[in-house]
């Protein structure tokens, strides 16, 4: 009798869940530290500069988890669990983090979904990072009164998206060098 | 096991509702009372568990951020103050107040949750009382187990970097990558064995662990406080609009 | 009546298609029987364990041709795999990697919860097992507040709490000190007495030899020898097995003269420590008034149990432990418990911490640029350079990564290399490989201070032994210390 699994199953194994925990801790800590980076940089570089340099760090949970786990839903779970860890370790931003995390994770998930979950390489990862910029700017407007003209808001989305793209690529490259 | 007379998940619901209030609230009146209540309670309870210094630092960073944001994004309305290089308009004050109130509401309620519970009990309660998927609960529990280990990884990586004559950490993307890779490499191997360890101990057969505890007085108190604040918020806004 | 609890007949198995790692491996374990599988790293012994548990084909997308039964469950079948936790207990190599829950009580309860045991009952039973393993006072602490030995005990408790018929142990001694080895040994004796089957994967068979009923020697994926209890009492047979790379002989049977003649007497003093006392914040000292010196070209072993302060001492010497008093002197200057610049270099046992580049070649380039040793010299000292130059360092084998991280450290031209448990997880062959590297680097006059509880380091390549015990440091005969470590572990 020959037993072996040819195709990768979509079910999450204990290994996948443990990997999600690893990325959740890494991104949870990055998310927490990023608050300080963001406020400091915004004071010097303005809203666009700050979005470009720091926002992507808040989206990094999705590309990290998706590049490692490579299963449908991993981007959403990675970002969301990272945000939950952030909530549990530091009251900075409180439980709204989880709401941001869910929305950003969902947007990143779309990046992989449009490739029908066939590729987990640089291209979908970059897209996933970029897409997270949209809900981030939208939630900022609701919660932090960060509202501008449509033109300004578009610029912010692009800046946040580009930032997401850059850090998503870094996350993907960091995973590439692992032994597995 | 004797524990406090409420479920940590009730606190979670409380905190989540308060955060939703912050999202819904669009006026100072609406946010004022919940923000003051949660701010005072949360910072009071939190200072004992987390330390006053850290909380004050946190507050300063956020108030500073709110101010910067307000100046950048909401500098409209009548001019209140002319500093020469910049005019402060009424919109700044309103936006600053709104964001600060939200901060006290959200962070205060989260601090209440974190002070009256701990991560381990909270995760257990989310699984058994709120019935979140056991896979998500497992991930969170393992993340919490990993935390000190990964803090140690980070410390060791920093030592090695310093010995090799490199800066510990900057925002430079290349630095970020060279920090992430060893962290993930060690984490990956650990996760691999942890995953095997969980599967050979029946993770995939895990049923949701059902709690057989009923709501206690403590839980009811939490929900009463929650309802009272939601009602007050809406009533205050209504009253002020009518008169 | 004797029942067979594990019946495995694997004709072929592997991780990737068409590449078999195991060939015709047949292993049977009856209840009350302790069976060991021994072989060098890469021989397929861990792969066999993963195969027998159904992990290889169900979890790691590998493949298996053959038949396995644990009790009456077929772990190769996906549905059977989900049930094996009911009949088997598993202890993995590294307790730190095996433990998955934040607190000991959750760790032990995990399997009971999955079995659907009532919460109250599960909680009571878990406490009973924690108590049995001396951990009841730590039940609700974070697992990282436990010592290395306590973590090992916790992993043992968690594998037995549901009273399985079969217990698997994967190199249970690899990451514990001799005191921990003794506990593992007692555990195995206990499980055997309960009439359950035990399968141990281990290359240091000498630790368990009197408990073993049957020994399989595996090499290159095939069973090359099966030894019965009688064979294990036969010195001639054991000698044969030792030649196959399996560690079956206690140290006192190794020829002592071979060892003591090789001791090297160092040159000038390169490191002098005087009256060093270190502590953690606000607590009593970890060790007190420690004084010693290291001479050039010497290999000094720093021996002690887990938690005796070995790592703290190394960190203090390299300036990474705040909270010390005393004097540390090197040829390049005096330090009042501060940094010694590049005179010493600390290397952790996890080589991955050390890497900062994306390929082996770039690692050596960085080392050469920042450390000052000629790049070609470094290349020539990494035996696998030509085949591995473009590979990320993380993808190398454990032996190669240890070699690379030690070489990088040496490339910064320290007078003393401080190595923390450099032989952990290495089999006899890889340990000798590491010894070769130490010999190579020693020739340049570099000294070594090696924190270890591995008797093999003492016997095979340490020139001197310093023992850290009860907060005090003393020097002792290398061979004597090695014997002491083995007797603590219960090897006679």
TrEMBL record, chain A:
Keywords: Membrane, Transmembrane, Transmembrane helix. InterPro entries: ABC_thiamin-permease_prd. It comes from the Archaea. The chain crosses the membrane at residues 12-40, 52-69, 126-147, 153-175. The keyword Membrane applies. Signal peptide: none annotated. The keyword Transmembrane applies. This is ABC transporter permease.
TrEMBL record, chain B:
GO terms for cellular component: plasma membrane. The keyword rRNA-binding does not apply. Keywords: Cell membrane, Membrane, Transmembrane, Transmembrane helix. Its main location: membrane. It holds the Pfam family CbiQ. It is a multi-pass membrane protein. The chain crosses the membrane at residues 12-33, 54-75, 95-116, 215-235. It comes from the Archaea. The keyword Transmembrane applies. Signal peptide: none annotated. It is found in: Membrane. PANTHER family: SLL0384 PROTEIN. This is Energy-coupling factor transporter transmembrane protein EcfT. The lineage of its organism: Archaea, Thermoproteota, Thermoprotei, Desulfurococcales, Desulfurococcaceae.
Automatic annotation (TrEMBL), chain C:
Keywords: ATP-binding, Cell membrane, Membrane, Nucleotide-binding, Translocase, Transport. This is ABC transporter domain-containing protein. GO terms for cellular component: ATP-binding cassette (ABC) transporter complex. It is found in: Cell membrane. Coiled coil: none annotated. GO terms for molecular function: ATP binding; ATP hydrolysis activity; ATPase-coupled transmembrane transporter activity. CDD domains: ABC_cobalt_CbiO_domain1. InterPro entries: AAA+_ATPase (IPR003593), ABC_transporter-like_ATP-bd (IPR003439), ABC_transporter-like_CS (IPR017871), ABC_transpr_CbiO/EcfA_su (IPR015856), ECF_ABC_transporter_ATP-bd (IPR050095), P-loop_NTPase (IPR027417). It comes from Zestosphaera tikiterensis. Residues 5-245, 271-491 form the ABC transporter domain. It is a peripheral membrane protein.
């Amino acid at each position: 009798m020959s037993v072996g699994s040819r195709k990768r199953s979509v079910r999450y194994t204990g290994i996948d869940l443990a990997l999600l925990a690893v990325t959740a801790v890494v991104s949870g800590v990055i998310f927490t530290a990023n608050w300080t980076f963001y406020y400091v940089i915004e004071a010097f570089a303005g809203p666009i500069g700050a979005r470009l340099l720091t926002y992507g760090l808040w989206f990094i949970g999705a590309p990290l988890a998706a590049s490692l786990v490579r299963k449908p839903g991993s981007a959403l779970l990675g970002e969301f669990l990272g945000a939950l860890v952030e909530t549990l370790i530091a009251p900075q931003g409180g439980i709204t983090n989880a709401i941001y995390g869910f929305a950003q994770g969902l947007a990143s998930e779309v990046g992989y979904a449009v490739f029908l979950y066939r590729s987990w390489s640089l291209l979908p990862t970059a897209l996933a990072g970029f897409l997270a910029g949209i809900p981030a700017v939208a939630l900022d407007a609701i919660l932090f009164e960060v509202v501008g003209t449509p033109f300004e808001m578009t610029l912010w989305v692009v800046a946040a998206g580009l930032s997401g793209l850059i850090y998503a690529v870094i996350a993907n490259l960091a995973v590439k060098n692992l032994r597995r | 096991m004797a524990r406090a007379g409420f479920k940590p998940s009730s606190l979670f619901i409380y905190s989540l509702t308060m955060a939703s209030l912050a999202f819904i609230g669009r006026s100072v009146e609406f946010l004022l009372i919940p923000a003051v209540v949660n701010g005072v309670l949360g910072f009071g309870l939190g200072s004992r568990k987390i330390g006053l210094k850290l909380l004050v630092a946190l507050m300063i960073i956020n108030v500073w951020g709110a101010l910067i944001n307000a100046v950048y994004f909401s500098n409209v309305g009548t001019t209140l103050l002319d500093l020469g290089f910049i005019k402060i308009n009424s919109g700044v004050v309103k936006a600053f107040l709104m964001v600060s109130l939200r901060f006290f509401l959200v962070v205060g309620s989260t601090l209440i949750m974190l002070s009256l519970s701990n991560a381990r009990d909270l995760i257990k309660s989310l699984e058994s009382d709120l019935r979140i998927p056991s896979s998500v609960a497992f991930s969170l529990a393992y993340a919490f187990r990993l935390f000190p280990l990964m803090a140690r990884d980070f410390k060791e990586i920093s030592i090695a970097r310093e010995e090799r004559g490199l800066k510990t950490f900057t925002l430079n993307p290349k630095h970020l990558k060279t920090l992430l890779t060893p962290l993930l490499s060690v984490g990956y191997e650990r996760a691999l064995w942890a995953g095997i360890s969980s599967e050979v101990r029946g993770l995939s057969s895990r049923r949701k662990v059902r709690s057989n505890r009923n709501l206690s007085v403590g839980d009811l108190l939490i929900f009463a406080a929650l309802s009272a604040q939601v009602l007050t918020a809406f009533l205050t806004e209504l009253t002020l609009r009518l008169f | 009546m004797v029942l067979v609890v594990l019946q495995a007949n694997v004709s072929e198995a592997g991780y990737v298609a068409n590449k078999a790692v195991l060939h015709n491996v047949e292993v049977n374990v009856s209840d009350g029987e302790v069976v060991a599988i021994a072989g060098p790293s890469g021989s397929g012994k861990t792969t066999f364990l993963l195969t027998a548990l159904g992990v290889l084909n169900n979890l790691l997308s590998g493949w298996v041709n053959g038949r396995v039964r644990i009790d009456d469950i077929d772990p190769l079948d996906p549905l059977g795999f989900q049930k094996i936790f009911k009949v088997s207990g598993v202890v993995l190599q590294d307790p730190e990697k095996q433990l998955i829950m934040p607190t000991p009580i959750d760790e032990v309860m995990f399997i009971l919860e999955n079995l659907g045991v009532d919460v109250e009952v599960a909680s009571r039973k878990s406490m009973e097992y924690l108590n049995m393993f001396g951990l009841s006072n730590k039940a609700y602490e974070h697992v990282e507040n436990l010592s290395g030995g306590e973590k090992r005990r916790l992993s043992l408790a968690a594998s037995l709490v549901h009273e399985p018929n079969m217990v698997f142990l994967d190199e249970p001694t690899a990451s514990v000190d001799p005191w921990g080895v003794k506990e593992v040994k007692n555990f195995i004796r206990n499980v055997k007495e309960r009439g359950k089957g035990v399968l141990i994967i281990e290359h240091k068979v000498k630790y368990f030899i009197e408990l073993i009923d049957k020994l399989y020697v595996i090499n290159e994926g095939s069973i090359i020898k099966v030894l019965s209890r009688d064979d294990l009492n036969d010195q001639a047979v054991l000698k044969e097995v030792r030649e196959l790379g399996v560690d079956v002989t206690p140290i006192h049977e190794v020829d002592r003269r071979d060892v003591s003649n090789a001791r090297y007497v160092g040159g000038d003093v390169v490191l002098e420590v005087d009256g060093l006392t270190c502590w953690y914040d606000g607590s009593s000292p970890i060790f007190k008034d420690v004084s010693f010196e290291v001479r050039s070209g010497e290999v000094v072993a720093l021996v002690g149990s887990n938690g005796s302060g070995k790592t703290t001492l190394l960190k203090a010497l390299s300036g990474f432990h705040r909270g010390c008093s005393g004097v540390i002197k090197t040829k390049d200057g005096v330090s009042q418990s501060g940094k010694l610049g590049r005179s010493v270099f600390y290397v952790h046992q996890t080589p991955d911490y050390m890497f900062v580049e994306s390929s082996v070649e770039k690692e050596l380039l960085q080392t050469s640029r920042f450390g000052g040793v000629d790049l070609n010299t470094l290349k020539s000292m990494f035996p696998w350079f030509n085949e591995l130059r473009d590979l990320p360092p993380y993808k190398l084998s454990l032996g190669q990564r240890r070699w690379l991280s030690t070489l990088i450290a040496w490339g910064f031209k320290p007078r003393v290399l401080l190595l923390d448990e450099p032989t952990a997880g290495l089999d006899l062959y890889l340990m000798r490989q590491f010894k070769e590297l130490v010999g190579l680097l020693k020739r340049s006059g570099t000294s070594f201070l090696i924190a270890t509880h591995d008797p093999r380091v003492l016997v095979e390549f340490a020139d001197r032994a310093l023992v850290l015990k009860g907060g005090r440091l003393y020097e002792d005969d290398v061979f004597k210390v090695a014997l002491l470590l083995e007797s603590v572990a219960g090897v006679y």
